[in-house]
Amino acid sequence: MVIGLQVVFYIIVVLSAFVSVYYSIKSRREQDPTKCGLLGAKMNISLGITLIFIACLVMLFKGSSVRIAIGAVFLVIGFFNGFAGIRNYALFSSRKR
To answer: CA–CA separation, 89 vs 52, rounded Å?
Structure first.
């Protein structure tokens, strides 16, 4: 059960990290500021997901107090990135129209 959960978390981390890199590259190459902002927001959301699941991996499996503290920091940064990405996506998608 625990190993299956670990594998699922690792897969989510790897996939969301690749998606984050993809959107980062696309946003840096984009010339239109609105599209660049939308792609940057998507990058922030996927980076937030990556950090949240890394925090879950760090805190849930073989957790010592140092690992839990590091996981808590990753969790806070991940939620902040996700929130900022959602906020920016709403802002730039309203500009698009």
So the answer is: 19
The model's pLDDT over 29-81, given as tens digits with 9 standing for 90+, comes to 999 999 999 999 999 999 999 999 999 988 887 768 888 899 999 999 999 99
Secondary structure (DSSP) of 33-66: HHHHHHHHHHHHHHHHHHHHHHHHHHHHSS--HH
Tell me the residue type at 43: M
Triad 83, 87, 93: Cα angle to 5°: 140
* Closest C-alpha to 16, from 72, 73, 85: 85
Instruction: Report the alpha-carbon distance of residue 3 to residue 31 in Å, rounded.
Output: 44
**What pTM does this model have?**
0.90
Can you say how many angstroms the Cα of residue 31 is from the centroid of all Cα atoms in its chain?
Answer: 24
